[in-house]
Amino acid sequence: MTSSPMSKTNQSKNSLSYSSDHWALQPYSLTNSNVIALAYFEQSDYAVCIHPEDKRGYRSIIRLIKNDQMISTINREYTSSERIGLALVMALVTEAYTRILPIAQNAVLGNNAHSFDPKTSTIQLGTSEEPIFLHGHVFGRGNPKEHYIENIPLDGPIPGMIFDLRAQSPHEPGNDKRVSWTPDEINKVVHRLKAEIDQIHNTYKAHGLTVITQNRFVDIYMVRHGETDWNTANKIQGHTDTQLNTKGKLQAQQLQEKFAGIDFTKVVSSDLIRARLTAELFLGPDKSTMIETSPLLRERCFGIWEGRSFVEFKSHVDQTINLDNMTQEEYVSFK
Questions:
Q1: How distant, in Å, are the alpha carbons of 39, 46, 207 from that of 151?
Q2: Annotated catalytic residue, options 185, 201, 225, 280
Q3: Is residue 306 annotated as part of the catalytic site, yes or no?
Q4: E strand residue ranges, 13-159
Q5: 120 annotated to bind ligand
């Protein structure tokens, strides 16, 4: 699909237009029934999904994606990083297939969505029906009649024969036609491949590849510490380790009712006593041992101004600092 710098062959890229509802421009989500996983490598995203039109070999496709701008992924040349990312995802998915089937194979192919004009020596990347996009195929080989995944025959050609991905070999059983999926078959294969990928994907993290097979939603609750005497006196606390007063302790205990029924899996608090005690009081003695503390969650340090009033501090700032002359970066840092 590419020519050397010395070649006289011309390439025509991105000269074709596609409607926003074109199949190749649709985003990929783990909520889609045929999507097995999403992967991330450096600056690139990839989708792993069941081939929508061919069940032979439990066939899947891995492709480069950019969900908010899919048009940017088609009919162009690809960077080394993008190609390396595809190779890593394909290696992962191929390994998952080896855990299910006797043989796993993969292929990175041009999908024949290109043309050549001999008069102008121009190669057109993509056609009006099908664009070029960076992708690969993974499929299994074995006994075509065997159910390697629950009640789903493998289909396809027997081992030893070339696997014709286009299914255009009419005299070769298994290569003579594509085999359609049923929704139930898609669900079962996707479920099994997700399970296998979950078992092995951590190995690929060392190579910079991140893979997710399930949407994971996390509820985060942010709680301010209870009242201190310096709060009531309008004093700057910063890193000074002030204690909760009686009202502050009561405020923390009242949070127990508010958070009743919530099973916290992690609690992180500032290491200052006013924050840590707030967490201990609303969690109760049975769960207080789960608290992790970190100085990174402290209020910012105000140095010599700690213990002095906010009114005094504001007056000093107004008299000594011209906020109007600050750059945006300086202002944000100051704030």
A1: 29, 29, 36
A2: 225
A3: no
A4: 35-41, 44-50, 60-65, 103-107, 114-117, 122-125, 135-141
A5: no
Closest CA to 282 of 251, 312, 240: 251
pLDDT band at 59 (very low <50, low <70, confident <90, very high): very high
Q: What percent of the chain has pLDDT over 70?
A: 92
Measured CA to CA, the distance from residue 75 to residue 126 in angstroms comes to 6
Q: How far is CA 62 from CA 36, 68, 139, 268, 276, in A?
A: 10, 18, 11, 38, 47
Superfamily (CATH) of domain 229-334: Phosphoglycerate mutase-like (3.40.50.1240)
- The response to whether 274 counts as a known ligand-binding position is yes
Global pTM value:
0.64
What architecture is domain 10-212?
A: 2-Layer Sandwich (3.30)
Indicate if the pLDDT at residue 334 is higher than 70.
Answer: no
Question: What is the separation of C-alpha 187 from the centre of its chain, rounded to a whole number of angstroms?
Answer: 21
Whether the predicted pLDDT of 147 surpasses 60: yes
Q: Are 248 and 226 in contact (CB under 8 A)?
A: yes
Q: Which of 70, 105, 112 is nearest to 90 (CA)?
A: 105
| 257 counts as catalytic | no
Beta-ladder partners of 61: 49, 137
CA trace torsion 153, 156, 159, 160 (10° rounding)? 170
The domain ranges of the chain are: 10-212, 229-334
Place of tokens 């709060």: 231
Catalytic residue among 299, 306, 312, 330: 299
